């Protein structure tokens, strides 16, 4: 594993740090990510973050990994790594369209028409349009290939019927990258297509879902005989699985956010403990903090191993499998960190109480721990599937 930074990468880092220093305000850091709760002022926070996304886009810092022709910087893997570390440690808000920019945009770049690219990508980058991703269903969560939402060709339209669930910002989205079954007779991986769906079309109903901590960042979305133009097809008919694979494998240095985010949370937790007399003198607390610090450092090495495999032309399966394992480790560390905060602070936990609740989703979101362990077992260790 070799991470030596050439002079041009250090100049990239310096430029980013200088820009963040001049533009990232305490107000934006406090906002970071809007709560989905219907509370006074939340819509103003959402719009403040939308404006921040536009500011970053105008300065060329919104999507550094994108090609220049789509508004990015064509950043190298090392530059992407630096960008992720610096923006995370500066506490910069993640994009409102984080799923769209990291996952959906690469598929549009590869499979989209020229009109789709030039029309949709700039507005996505600026958060002029909010995007969601229609994958999970009540009977098809981590198993995308089991989806049952169907699209039947009728002249110049597909007629879409079905339901999606746990759709991030589905009730706020203008566009949806929707996965549907277009060939019910084909093997389940081969009968799926991908559509770019205008969420204002008649027959679409989005209902916010309230999670354990009171947020409503997710929605369940119903499609009642929605007529979607045929030109909304993204990629070849019945090739949705390939589109999904492209979508989920694009961000080459995004794994750095996993350890950088946890490092930041651990430092914040230690600072909160320091404000209470005697907490940092407790050997049990110190032991648990030390264990978390070691595990986060291990996670950093794991993430960098995945990035190094990409950087130096290592086997693709090594990069994929290591990243999958890193995601599993990240979720487990996050839950243990939240538990320590709650155990020690109790009724003084404040925002840590909220993190204690949201941390339960860390081993589910972005691929469940069980699925990721199967990927590690079969694709890295070479174990049999049964």
UniProtKB/TrEMBL annotation:
Domain Acyl-CoA dehydrogenase/oxidase N-terminal: residue ranges: 8-126
Domain Acyl-CoA dehydrogenase/oxidase C-terminal: 238-381
Keywords attached to this entry: FAD, Flavoprotein, Oxidoreductase
Record bears the keyword Flavoprotein: yes
GO molecular function: acyl-CoA dehydrogenase activity; flavin adenine dinucleotide binding
UniProt GO cellular component terms: plasma membrane
Pfam families: Acyl-CoA_dh_1 (PF00441), Acyl-CoA_dh_M (PF02770), Acyl-CoA_dh_N (PF02771)
Span of domain Acyl-CoA oxidase/dehydrogenase middle: 132-226
Keyword Flavoprotein attached: yes
UniProt-listed InterPro entries: Acyl-CoA_DH_CS (IPR006089), Acyl-CoA_Oxase/DH_mid-dom (IPR006091), Acyl-CoA_Oxase/DH_mid-dom_sf (IPR046373), AcylCo_DH-like_C (IPR036250), AcylCo_DH/oxidase_C (IPR009075), AcylCoA_DH/ox_N (IPR013786), AcylCoA_DH/ox_N_sf (IPR037069), AcylCoA_DH/oxidase_NM_dom_sf (IPR009100)
Cofactor(s) the protein requires to work: FAD
Family: Belongs to the acyl-CoA dehydrogenase family.
Name this protein carries in UniProt: Acyl-CoA dehydrogenase
Native source organism of the sequence: Mycobacterium asiaticum
Lineage: Bacteria, Bacillati, Actinomycetota, Actinomycetes, Mycobacteriales
């Amino acid at each position: 594993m070799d991470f030596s930074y050439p002079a041009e990468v250090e100049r990239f880092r310096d430029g980013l740090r200088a820009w963040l220093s001049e533009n990232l305000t305490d107000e934006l850091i406090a906002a970071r990510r809007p709560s989905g709760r219907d509370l006074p002022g939340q819509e103003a926070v959402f719009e403040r973050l939308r404006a921040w996304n536009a500011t970053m886009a105008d300065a060329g810092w919104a999507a550094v990994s994108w090609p220049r022709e789509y508004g990015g910087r064509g950043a190298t893997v090392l530059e992407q790594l630096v960008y992720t570390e610096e923006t995370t440690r500066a506490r910069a808000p993640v994009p409102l369209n984080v799923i769209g920019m990291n996952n959906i945009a690469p598929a549009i770049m590869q499979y989209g028409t020229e009109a789709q690219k030039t029309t949709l990508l700039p507005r996505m980058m600026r958060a002029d349009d909010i995007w969601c991703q229609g994958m999970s269903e009540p009977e098809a969560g981590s198993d995308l290939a089991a989806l049952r939402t169907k699209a039947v060709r009728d002249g110049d339209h597909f007629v879409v019927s079905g339901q999606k669930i746990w759709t991030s910002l589905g009730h706020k989205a203008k566009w949806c990258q929707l996965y549907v079954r277009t060939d019910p007779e084909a093997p389940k991986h081969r009968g799926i297509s991908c559509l770019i769906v205008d969420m204002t079309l008649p027959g679409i109903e989005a209902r916010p879902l309230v999670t354990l901590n009171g947020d409503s960042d997710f929605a369940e979305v119903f499609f009642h005989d929605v007529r979607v133009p045929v030109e909304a097809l993204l990629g070849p008919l019945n090739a949705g699985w390939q589109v999904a694979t492209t979508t989920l494998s694009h961000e080459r240095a995004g794994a750095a956010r996993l350890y950088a985010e946890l490092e930041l949370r651990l430092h914040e937790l230690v600072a909160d403990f320091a404000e209470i007399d005697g907490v940092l003198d407790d050997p049990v607390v110190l032991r648990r903090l030390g264990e978390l610090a070691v595990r986060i450092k291990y996670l950093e090495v794991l993430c960098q191993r995945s990035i190094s495999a990409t950087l130096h032309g290592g086997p693709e399966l090594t990069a994929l499998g290591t990243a999958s394992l890193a995601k599993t480790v990240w979720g487990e560390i996050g839950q243990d960190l939240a538990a320590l905060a709650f155990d020690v602070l109790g009724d003084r936990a404040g925002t840590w109480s909220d993190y204690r609740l949201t941390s339960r989703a860390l081993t589910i979101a972005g691929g469940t721990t069980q699925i990721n362990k199967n990927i590690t077992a079969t694709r890295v260790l070479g174990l049999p599937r049964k």
